[in-house]
């Protein structure tokens, strides 16, 4: 498959599995193409201007941010996916839908403009004394409905359903058979949802309009200047020579690139179009190649320093500094990717898939001559860790990347290329802005109605106040709530609904609780039956989507273990005053436990595992993961015994089997 064919395949898969990619094709838009270009430049220009000059008042900043995004969404995303391609639609229907969407675009921008132009009145004494007028209420209602429709078009139905149910609960809660609420008038509902800085224009949009947009633009700059491709080369050089090299390289590359994408599905397709064919070529099954890419791409969202841009919202919700969250998140992220690497390693050993030859890998000399391409990310990390605001850190990262791009012809941007980057930055941000607006709506209603506390009480009662069962039910809630949501919206919804369950009833440290719900919300992308990232990767691999999802669940088993560990032993993420020895004990035994469980799920340790050996290893792994030292030691003893038995059996087999009769190895020599 040529690079062009791979790109076309990737776009086809994205349109199938990623709602954000089902937009109208630029070449078919006619004069509307220029309107979209101008609006996109205007949105990016506004974000850059406020990053330099300072943000406007909360409602004004949010209204311009959301209004500009909604205008672009209605122009780019049709009512139904079948209307996105002119060749698949009758001409009259295509252009008619575009005219209708233009009206909706200007209506959405008009609702936001009304708030900006009448800011003093809407926040002034007159409204406080006499309330909102009927026209104010009508504008609010239209604005809310357009945001829900825009979100459906570019994000998907799940979050719109959640938001609609939240609105109905806010309005008609007194009729709810469970968790009743006294309710309110529909007028009060729409007024509080639209004109409040605690709902649509709450923390998610406040962070999106100041920080998140700039980091998404940074990701676009890395891709368009080909600086991001350096990560792939570095990943292959570091891991390509080891057993299952291409798969391990895919894990490392996706970890580095995924942190700035904000979408596990988009990352799986973008990286997978390059890594999945290579994994299949050396001998991995298609379903495993898809599962590995999906798992790594999902893990990229938990990878510091940017964590899919959710880290900035997390800082606002928890009141904890960005630099602290970034440092704390390193340990669980390392454990997640260590678990994925172990799953890949045992799969490679089981199928005798060796590493790549030296001549297949980029040379260290080549990589060292281009090491400056790591500088933009290094600048961002340094500035975030030294207390610089995220907005300024992102600006410095963007500026550094653009300056470096001019040093080489392969990375240099033309004037037209720079304008395309600015336009792409706005377009990439659209699903995130829509999702943040709708998620903010949900968060505001949950807070206003006290729904979070009622849900916490319900789960606590169902679990019989058992801590493990509460964690389990919270995990299930996050897996359901996180289905099909972009990273930022995923975190907002799970943090609002599920995190209080752990914090209010069991005194779990706030950061541990928020990371717990963040992890499991994201893992919905690789958990059957809705595992969107696995489905997208299976489109590239040509594998069965559901089988790829089940395999991704197995590869990501560490992701399901790590949150339980750092909630049960918060010292692992430095949330208690534990000693260094206790930290090392929990960290090392958890890694050993994940090793045993990964081997058991792969069916290979030092040799192929029988069914009963897999059960024993899983039990030993669970024992090692439990923070209690004496339980971990029992697990270690059992695992060591299993390892010795495996080694002895492998030696007997290799000694009695002639070399010519042994299974052939795939790929190059290890």
Automatic annotation (TrEMBL):
InterPro entries: DctM (IPR010656), DUF3394 (IPR021814), TRAP_DctM-Dct_fused (IPR011853). Coiled coil: none annotated. It comes from the Bacteria. The chain crosses the membrane at residues 32-52, 58-80, 92-117, 129-148, 155-172, 203-223, 288-314, 320-346, 367-385, 391-407, 428-447, 467-485, 552-574, 586-606, 618-645. The keyword Zinc does not apply. Keywords: Membrane, Transmembrane, Transmembrane helix. Residues 142-575 form the TRAP C4-dicarboxylate transport system permease DctM subunit domain. PANTHER family: BLL3936 PROTEIN. NCBIfam families: TRAP_fused. This is TRAP transporter permease. The lineage of its organism: Bacteria, Bacillati, Actinomycetota, Actinomycetes, Micrococcales.
């Amino acid at each position: 498959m040529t690079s062009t064919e791979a790109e076309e395949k990737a776009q086809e898969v994205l349109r199938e599995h990623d709602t954000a990619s089902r937009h109208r094709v630029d070449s078919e838009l006619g004069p509307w193409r220029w309107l979209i270009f101008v609006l996109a430049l205007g949105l990016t220009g506004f974000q850059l201007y406020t990053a330099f000059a300072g943000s406007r008042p909360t409602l004004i900043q949010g209204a311009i941010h959301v209004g500009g995004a909604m205008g672009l969404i209605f122009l780019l995303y049709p009512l139904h996916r079948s209307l996105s391609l002119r060749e698949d639609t009758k001409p009259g229907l295509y252009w008619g839908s575009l005219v209708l969407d233009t009206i909706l675009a200007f209506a959405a921008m008009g609702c936001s403009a009304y708030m900006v132009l009448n800011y003093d009145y809407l926040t002034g004494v007159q409204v406080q004394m006499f309330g909102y007028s009927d026209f104010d209420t009508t504008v609010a209602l239209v604005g809310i409905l357009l945001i829900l429709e825009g979100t459906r078009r570019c994000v998907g139905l799940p979050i719109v359903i959640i938001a609609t149910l939240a609105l109905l609960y806010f309005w008609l809660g007194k009729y709810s058979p469970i968790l009743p609420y006294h309710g309110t008038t529909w007028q009060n509902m729409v007024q509080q949802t639209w004109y409040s800085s605690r709902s649509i224009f709450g923390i998610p949009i406040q962070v999106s309009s100041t920080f998140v947009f700039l980091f998404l633009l940074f990701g676009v700059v890395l891709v368009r200047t080909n600086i991001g491709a350096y990560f792939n080369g570095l990943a292959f050089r570091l891991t390509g020579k080891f057993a299952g090299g291409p798969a391990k390289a895919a894990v490392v590359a996706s970890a580095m690139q995924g942190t700035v994408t904000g979408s596990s599905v988009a990352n799986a397709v973008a990286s997978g179009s390059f890594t999945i064919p290579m994994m299949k070529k050396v001998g991995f099954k298609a379903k495993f190649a898809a599962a590995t890419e999906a798992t790594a791409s999902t893990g990229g969202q938990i990878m510091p320093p940017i964590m899919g841009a959710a880290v900035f919202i997390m800082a606002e919700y928890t009141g904890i500094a960005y630099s602290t969250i970034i440092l704390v998140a390193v340990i669980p992220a390392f454990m997640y990717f260590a678990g994925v690497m172990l799953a890949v390693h045992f799969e490679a050993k089981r199928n005798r898939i060796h590493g790549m030859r030296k001549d297949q890998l980029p040379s260290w000399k080549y990589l060292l001559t281009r090491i400056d391409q790591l500088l933009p990310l290094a600048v961002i990390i340094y500035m975030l860790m030294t207390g610089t605001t995220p907005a300024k850190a992102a600006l410095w990262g963007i500026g550094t990347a653009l300056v470096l791009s001019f040093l080489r012809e392969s990375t240099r941007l033309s004037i037209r290329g720079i304008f395309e980057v600015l336009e792409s930055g706005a377009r990439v941000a659209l699903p995130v802005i829509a999702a943040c607006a709708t998620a903010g709506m949900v968060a505001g209603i949950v807070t206003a109605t006290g729904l979070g506390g009622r849900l916490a009480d319900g789960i606590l009662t169902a679990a019989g106040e058992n801590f493990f069962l509460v964690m389990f039910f919270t995990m299930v809630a996050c897996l359901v709530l996180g289905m099909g949501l972009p990273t930022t919206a995923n975190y907002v919804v799970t943090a609002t609904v599920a995190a209080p369950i752990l914090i209010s009833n069991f005194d779990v440290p706030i950061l541990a609780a928020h990371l717990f719900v963040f992890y499991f919300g994201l893992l919905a992308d690789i958990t059957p039956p809705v595992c969107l990232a696995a489905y997208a990767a299976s489109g590239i691999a040509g594998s069965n989507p559901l089988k790829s999802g089940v395999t991704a669940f197995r590869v990501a088993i560490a992701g399901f273990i790590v949150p339980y560990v750092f909630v049960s032993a918060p010292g692992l993420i430095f949330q208690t005053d534990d000693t260094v020895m206790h930290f090392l004990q929990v960290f090392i035994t958890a890694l050993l436990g994940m090793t045993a469980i990964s081997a058991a799920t792969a069916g290979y340790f030092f040799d192929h595992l029988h069914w009963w050996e897999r059960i024993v290893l899983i039990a030993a792994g669970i024992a090692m993961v439990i923070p209690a030292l004496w339980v971990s030691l029992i697990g270690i003893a059992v695992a060591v015994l299993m390892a010795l038995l495996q080694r002895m059996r492998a030696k007997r087999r290799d000694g009695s089997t002639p070399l010519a009769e042994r299974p052939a190895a795939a790929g190059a020599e290890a």
